What we know:
By secondary structure, the chain is an alpha/beta fold. The protein folds into two domains: 31-72, no CATH class; 74-240, Rossmann fold (3-Layer(aba) Sandwich).
Amino acid sequence: MNRLRQPTTAAMIRDILERARLLVRHAARPTRALEDAWPAAGDLDVERTLEIAGPDLAALRPTDLRVSRREPREADVVVVLDMSLSMTGEKVAIVALATAILRMRLEHVAVVAFDTRAHRVVRVGEAVPLRELVRRVLEVPARGYTNIEAGLAAGLDELGRARRRERVALLFTDGCANIGADPVPTAARFPRLHVVHLGDYNPAGARNCKAMAVAGRGKLFRAHSYPDLPNVVRAAVCELFRG
Length: 243
């Protein structure tokens, strides 16, 4: 059985990576603007230099010269995936595609999946090739109930191992937990938690997603269907990591 499955999985991974590359082909890697003093690398920032120097240009000193440059945005990101029993093969493939997009744009991405309990798919700081990351997401079994709090607790634990100054989590879920504790208090413990409300609209799930995003000082995004998810994630990266 495994011999038959391996070529199928390999083909699916290849298709997912090809589609992910198409979706991000025109998207630049997130960067941040930095200001520094001459002679550091960068372009002369005339406006900022004049602001510092004041009206008396004769008194302008070399140390007053300001330069600006853009550097890659460094962040540790943990994505928390709802992989409970309702996840079909197609949905899992779309979630894997969305996770691949995150990794292509942000590089330092860990993955936690949850059903009745949490599963650490990729640990913070673990050097995993993109192809292997996609394979691991695809091979998470879709089973059990929906314990959002368990997924968030594992994601928070992973984020606690992060070494970069910017630490962010993204939760993909319909918000409809049917087992476990209230996830909102755990959401409040994150330095930053953004929520992608995914799938068919459910009032209770919508309220839960909004409450988690508010508690986590993050933003709420809406993917009305699973096929919408990759484009929503691509837009979310641009919105959350620009500047």
